[in-house]
Amino acid sequence: MAIESFNPHTGRVERRFRAFSWSKTEQVLAQAHRAFSTWRTTSFAHRAERMHRAADLLRERQQELAHLMAVEMGKPVVDGRAEIEKCALCCDYYADHAEQFLADEEIKTEAQHSFIAHEPIGVVLAVMPWNFPFWQVVRFAAPALMAGNVGLLKHASNVPQCALALEKIFHDAGFPPATFRTLLIGSDLVSKLIEDDRVRAVTLTGSEPAGAQVAATAGREIKKTVLELGGSDAFIVLADADLELAAKTAAQARMINSGQSCIAAKRFIVEKSILKEFVAKMKAHLLAFRPGDPLNEATQYGPLARPDLADELTQQVEDSVKQGAKVELPGGQSEPGTALFRPMILSRVKPGQRAYVEEFFGPVAIILEAKDADDAIRLANDSRFGLGGSVWTRDAKRGQELARRVEAGAVFVNSMVKSAPEMPFGGVKKSGYGRELSHLGIREFVNQKSIWVAKEEKPEAKKKVE
């Protein structure tokens, strides 16, 4: 099996790599397992020094890494540089806070001394997607390595150069080579890895079917998993919202990574009285986005990562229109088999249409009409997904109250949904379970061990014998 770097803008294969055999994969796993016994004994200061160095290297190689993302999955270099800076911030964050997050927690009991210790568990396998080729990996790797675990990365097969570049950064930063390795393997070897006793846990960011398969295999093997899956985030606009700000942010939120983001806003739920005006404003903002060569500094969105992804998105749109949806903003592919997909808006979206129930992983904005705020919450929650969402209103207190009613892992009031090292990230329902980032993320893959030290029994004082 060959693993290819395919440039979606030029349509050319940049590089080909031979996939690892099981024999080679097993050899890397054995090295990682052995490395864990030593790495787990290192101090937080020792790990932090290397993690800070990794952050420095990310910043030094920022342009080179942004170039790799542009040619492998079509991300504009401006966005690529921002992604690398975010990765560096995450490395610094865990270097600075891991020791505090994993400090022993004193528990008051009848014992002389009782506490919870947070201890590393071993090899963590990460199955990662192509849409944020560095950020998705770093938000697993930085906390895992700082906790004393070791990581094996099975990246998406279309971003092998990104995967190898990140491996090199960790190695150049001074991490022992076996503590972080990239496995150039197909999905056919993932189950075999999970079934190996030396792999202690799995984290996956990807599609719902991939998550279900990994969770089923890990469940049979009694292994911990964290899953971050699809999303169809609700962007709720109430009648009292700052309409200009909401519409401008709505366009930006739909166009994150050319629309290829789990937390990109996808369902725009708007109160009836402002619906027409909102759609007109959002349309104008979407039309202002500049497509082009991802290597051009002026490009604001590039092609989708692969032509087949654009073909599938086109089919979702066409089926939805046949089912009654209306095209408010024409766009999409210029012809089948091409990767560039211009933004679209669909209105009159109703239950039973693909646009109502499915995630559209590309720049298609789905408009839903709400009678009032309660109806907006009903529509937001009428989805099998629950990753993120936002509420737009001039009444921040009301926005906060409504945010509590949205079934999602993160809800932002008057702001675009985003991930940051300080805040937990993850979903509910079919969007997955477990959390990445913050103190919760680093505690997902540790043994939360209870330690109890009994009180010493004092020997009775011997009576003096007269």
Please give a structural write-up:
The structure is a single chain. The protein is of the alpha/beta class. It has 2 domains: 2-229 and 427-452, Aldehyde Dehydrogenase, Chain A, domain 1, CATH 3.40.605.10; 233-413, Aldehyde Dehydrogenase, Chain A, domain 2. The chain has helices at 22-39, 44-60, 62-73, 77-101, 135-146, 160-172, 190-195, 208-220, 243-254, 275-287, 307-322, 354-357, 373-381, 396-405, 438-442, and strands at residues 2-7, 12-18, 105-106, 113-120, 123-127, 150-154, 180-182, 199-205, 224-228, 233-237, 265-271, 326-329, 344-347, 364-370, 388-392, 410-413, 432-433, 446-453. Helix 14 links the parallel strand 15 (388-392) and strand 16. The mean pLDDT is 97. This is Succinate-semialdehyde dehydrogenase / glutarate-semialdehyde dehydrogenase.
Summary tags:
466 residues; Ald_DH_N; Ald_DH/histidinol_DH; Aldehyde Dehydrogenase, Chain A, domain 2; NADP
What's the gist of this structure?
Helix content is 40%, strand content 20%. With 466 residues, the protein is of the alpha/beta class.
The number of strands is: 18
| Rg, Cα atoms, Å | 24 Å
Which class do the helix and strand fractions yield? Answer: alpha/beta
CATH superfamily of the largest domain: Aldehyde Dehydrogenase, Chain A, domain 1
Low-confidence stretches: none
Provide the domain count. Answer: 2
Gross geometry: globular
**How many angstroms separate the termini?**
92 Å
Q: Strand count, sense and closure of the main sheet?
A: 7 strands, mixed
Number of DSSP helical runs: 15
Q: So what's the CATH class of the largest domain?
A: Alpha Beta
How is the CATH topology of the largest domain named?
Aldehyde Dehydrogenase, Chain A, domain 1
How would you state the average pLDDT, rounded?
A: 97
Going across the biggest sheet, name each strand in turn. 12-13-14-11-10-15-16
- CATH architecture group name of the largest domain: 3-Layer(aba) Sandwich
In helices, the fraction of residues equals 25-40%
| Percent of residues in beta strands | 15-25%
Domain Aldehyde dehydrogenase: 3-451
GO molecular function, one term: aldehyde dehydrogenase [NAD(P)+] activity
Pfam families: Aldedh
Organism: Hymenobacter mucosus
